[in-house]
Amino acid sequence: MPAPTEFLTYIDAKADIFIKRLADAVAIPSISGDAKHRNDVFAMADWLNAQLRQLGVDTQLVDLGRHKMDGEDLPLPPAILGRIGSDSSKKTVLIYGHFDVQPANKSDGWDTDPFTLVVDEKTGRLIGRGSSDDKGPILGWLNVLQYHHESKLPLPVNLVFCFEGMEESGSEGLDDLVRRESKKGGCFEGVDCVCISDNYWLNTRTPALTYGLRGLSYYKVTISGPARDLHSGVFGRTVHEPMTDLISLLSTLVSPQGDILIKGVDDMVPRADEEEKAIYAGLDYSIADVEESAGASIALSADKVSVLMGRMREPSLSIHGIEGAFSGAGAKTVIPAKVSGKFSIRLVPPQTPEAIDPLVIDHLEKAFAKLGSKNKLSVENLHGGKPWVADHRHWNFEAAKKATKAVYKQDPDLTREGGSIPVTLTFAESLGVNVLLLPMGRGDDGAHSTNEKLDRSNFIEGSKLLGTYLYELADIAKN
Ligand code: BES
Ligand code: MN
Ligand code: MN
Question: Residue numbers for the site described as Important for catalytic activity (predicted)?
Fold first, then answer.
């Protein structure tokens, strides 16, 4: 049963109204990682909850308790659980998405205000924080719901929703909720498959279906010594300097070519055989694509397969920042008393945070001992998540392939992603069902970056794709 033509024309006809709704969502700066904006994440939960209710979804806001962030005790934003349809002859699909976003300030280099959705008529871009990650995709589901609500046409499957507001900050509290609701009598009982729309095509032309995500282990390494910040004219070459120690330590983690220098980490991953390499060679991707989305000619290699493997099937280590360091304008001659380096490692099977943590801590302690410094070292693990790989021959993927073909007249690329959505594996394990990642945006959307955008056509065709996927699912599942 293909999606009704009326559904497709409805989505086209309502495009401007849908874009207006996206603008309303983007206007709420629901930044989970910034304590000052915690009330906005709550406001975003209320906004989304009201939208879902208006469209006939039976919802509840679930309190996830409190947590500590940067030493502050804060209430966690609620998760939204919802259901529409409970026809036992239909399949039940669990939809996940997150309504929190990354921080954004115009001064980071945005051309426009990040929380005012700008519709660039020339390029068709919808520019604003969260447009692609992940408010656009969530609103895609609202668009699908709205057609069925207004036309009073029942959905072809039962839908269960799980939307959270802490994804960008490690999905605090969500794993427990998912495990609880997956049990007998829970909201997720009877779920047949999961669909997550929280990633991107590989390039700007070919739709993708995604069957893998990397995991993550995030570290904070702190060097402290002096009782207070010191004058470098008075104390330079007189005391052990925390910043000097930290830079030495950070430089032992990863080579400029991307090799992870912590013993045992790269070695944990089996090498790709020729068959696996052929998969990467077959993807519609070029070095030009990576350099276009990075905005510079800086790819680690000219070989497409090796660059793709670096993102999809190898671990990576990135150094993110130094807390406590002098970082303002001017030329302050300070010796900072306490500095913390932040870095994370993206993990691939069979790596887990539990297996990696001891290797990292041991490496840092040994490297620090070699410095012969009298300063103090401490290492903290901030958050983590396991990698996930799914079976892409499953009917869940078959339905998404058919839907892609129907909407985009093109076969999708089958990809693994370099990013992480830690709850994905929790869904797969606690429900024991197949999980599909069905992206809406393109590879150059700039999630987490300045001028994040979603192309208008991806929002509209992507909404059609989500709906069409449900129809294809109903069809396949019956056979
Ligand atoms: N949507 C991303 C996940 C993602 C990133 C998928 C890149 C595909 C490609 C998600 O919102 C995200 O940013 N996740 C964080 C998770 C972390 C905070 C645990 C990430 O990957 O850094
Ligand atoms: Mn996301
Ligand atoms: Mn994100």
Answer: 231
